[in-house]
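Allow me, if you will, to draw on your knowledge of protein folds for a short while. The matter concerns a single protein, recorded as an amino acid sequence and a row of backbone structure tokens. Could you please explain, in whatever detail you think fit, how the structure tokens follow from the sequence? I remain grateful for any guidance, and I place the record below:

…
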Amino acid sequence: MNYEPEDFARSLLAELKIKRADNPEAVAARLRLRIEEVDFENLEGALVFRVDRAKGIISINKNIREIGRRNFTICHEIAHFVLPSHGSVKCKSKEIESWSNRINLQEIEANRFASELLLPKNEIYQIINNKVSIETAKAIAKNFNTSLTATLLKCSEVTDESCAVIWSIDGRIEWVKKNENFNFFIPKKDLDNDSVAYQLFKDNSNQEGEKAVYAETWVSDDNLQSDLQIWEESISMPNYNGVLTLLSLI
């Protein structure tokens, strides 16, 4: 049987007899992983441990600003400790919470593990009641002490709605994570002028916005109906010079 990263996360929660990792530092302590803060420049976290995995050290960038990002990074490093074939590692800031195809498979697996440890699929499914929005993700993130990015990704994953989460930097799409019901292709390109995300990059006074846009604003498909519209919600994240977007079929 092939086990997915989420399976290992759920097994760890069951072993520790907790519902979710609402205190990642306590989880690390129970695994005999000591946490230290380091003044990293390009790294978000790192892990070193004994060959027998009896104990280890998680190093976290002390300059991480949000508690949700810090919690995710700790759980990401726990993943490298728990998942088979993973080892001591240094994790760049751009690899944490990322779905870019430019990062290696083990970093993607660690992100998946961390997501399930912090935001268990079954619990989030019950909360969202099959409705996904940035406002809903904000409320969950506040309650769970998780990042908005990780929370929105999990909401998109568990809903039956057709939606996609997009991360853009400097006016260009960096990565796209579609759920299994969203069948359109979204290319990595410069943002369309008609998108809310583009306007947020152009106008720093606005933090977020939403509206119906023509699907071709985001989607590339030869068979796309010219009048098809999708709902876009975007929010500026100036600490990362980025914009987070949720697309949903209307």
